[in-house]
Design goal:
The protein is of the alpha/beta class and 419 residues long. It is 31% helix and 24% strand. Bound molecules: zinc ion.
Length: 419
């Protein structure tokens, strides 16, 4: 199996679980993920304060349906967990269609699809169904049952840390709170897991965060106040597996190193760069003014911009292995670039140093990329004034970052540069 197929298999495996911002669906998701990536799981009790928020009661659900008078299930949670509004309060009642109707959610414009709806912070119950199904429901009495519980419990999130040579951190986060939605949450979970597994002895310490959206990120931030100063860069992954091209949303700062790294990595691909806005995924929390971290967000087609978004159309068929693999490749390239970016000082800044007598021309002899390599050395020497990093050199010269790193390494070995 290719890596893309392996990630897709993980998406398929996690797809049936009924996740929400709390509850056993999240725990089961993390249990499975733990087989791929050792996780530290954290349980934060109901009622815990997180800045302006409070960890809510834990929601769990076992079954739900709307049945006709013969007992036949017309809407069945066992077929798809999208059929129940997330955080629905329990109910077991008989009612007419007219009484039921205010609790039914459909997509009249996409009549065959089931929408995804939540009601986390205002107690309510509801069902989501295809408009086509609703249109076929005759007036009359229905048995409505939601076997759910809202109790004091916990909010569950997980971390995986890849220790680096320095304690400065890069965070990679993705949300874990959506039920059977494949691109919107599972694709990024799969990419993050395989990204974490690919890191070997990195420069930075990498902290992967698997948390429910909004309340999870706010809870994590509130419990990690002492760590925030260590977080130098970050990336929020979302909608990572559809067939669209990649989209990078810049941090609130707009010129953070991660913003420049992603723009450089995406330079040679079809892509889109969008400015920060306080809407979307957990970049909203990391980039809130009290933190203003250098955290951007990488997606393929961004949220709400594909018709399958937040519907039953966002199923594992909508996520394609090559796209997962492509997102992973860009993430790997970006982190590798971030990890190797250094700022040097030219130790021989008065005129160009003589490269030939140091064997720096010879070492390149005959190589087809010799001209690039030579140009990279000249650029690195020229810009290494202690103010410009290798990222600056790559941006300004248009040369591949790898060539710039190779040039810097050769010049460093020849004692023409120091960090
Ligand atoms: Zn979503």
């Amino acid at each position: 199996m290719s890596t893309g197929e392996q990630m897709h298999a993980l998406v398929e495996r996690l797809y049936p679980l009924c996740r929400s911002i709390t509850g056993d669906g999240v725990r089961e998701t993390l249990d499975i993920l733990n087989e791929y990536l050792p996780l530290a799981v954290f349980e934060v009790p109901t009622g815990a304060r997180a800045f302006d928020w409070t960890v809510p009661q834990e929601w769990n659900i076992r079954d739900a349906f709307i049945a006709d008078t013969t007992g036949r299930r017309i809407v069945d949670f066992r077929e798809s967990n999208l059929h129940v509004v997330s955080y629905s309060t329990p109910i077991d009642a008989r009612m007419t269609l007219a009484e039921l109707r205010p609790h039914l959610h459909t997509l009249p414009e996409q009549p065959s699809l089931v929408p995804y709806r939540t009601s986390y912070y205002s107690p309510d119950w509801g069902f989501c169904l295809a408009q086509d199904v609703l249109d076929r429901m005759p007036d009359g009495e229905y048995h409505v049952r939601i076997d759910s519980t809202l109790d004091d419990g916990h909010l569950t999130y997980a971390e995986h840390v890849v220790p680096g040579q320095v304690t400065d951190e890069v965070i990679v986060s993705c949300h874990t709170c959506h039920p059977s939605l494949a691109n919107d949450n599972l694709a990024s979970i799969a990419v993050a897991a395989y990204l974490a597994r690919s890191l070997k002895n990195p420069w930075y310490t990498y902290r992967f965060l698997f948390m429910p959206g909004t309340i999870g990120a706010i809870t994590w931030l509130s419990r990690n106040a002492e760590r925030i100063d260590k977080v130098k860069h970050g990336l929020v992954l979302a909608c990572a597996g559809d067939a669209g091209h990649l989209t990078y949303k810049k941090s609130r700062r707009g010129d953070a190193e991660i913003d420049r790294v992603l723009q450089l990595v995406l330079r040679e691909r079809k892509h889109e760069i969008v400015d920060f806005s306080p809407y979307g995924y957990d970049e909203r929390q990391f980039c809130s003014p009290g933190f203003d971290l250098g955290v951007g967000s990488l997606s393929r087609t961004p949220y709400a911009r594909y018709p399958e978004y937040h519907t039953s159309g966002d199923n594992p068929d909508f996520v394609v292995p090559w796209a997962l693999e492509d997102t992973l490749a860009v993430c790997r390239e970006a982190l590798s670039l971030l990890d190797r970016n250094r700022t040097y000082v030219n130790l021989s800044p008065y005129g160009e140093p003589q490269l030939g007598k140091r064997g720096l021309y010879d070492s390149l002899g005959g190589r087809s990329d010799a001209k690039d390599a030579q140009l990279a050395m000249l650029w690195v020497l020229n810009l290494s004034d202690g103010e410009h990093s290798l990222l600056d050199v790559a941006e300004r010269s248009g040369l591949p970052f790898d060539s710039v790193v190779a040039a810097a390494s050769a010049l460093h070995d020849a004692e023409l540069l120091k960090v």
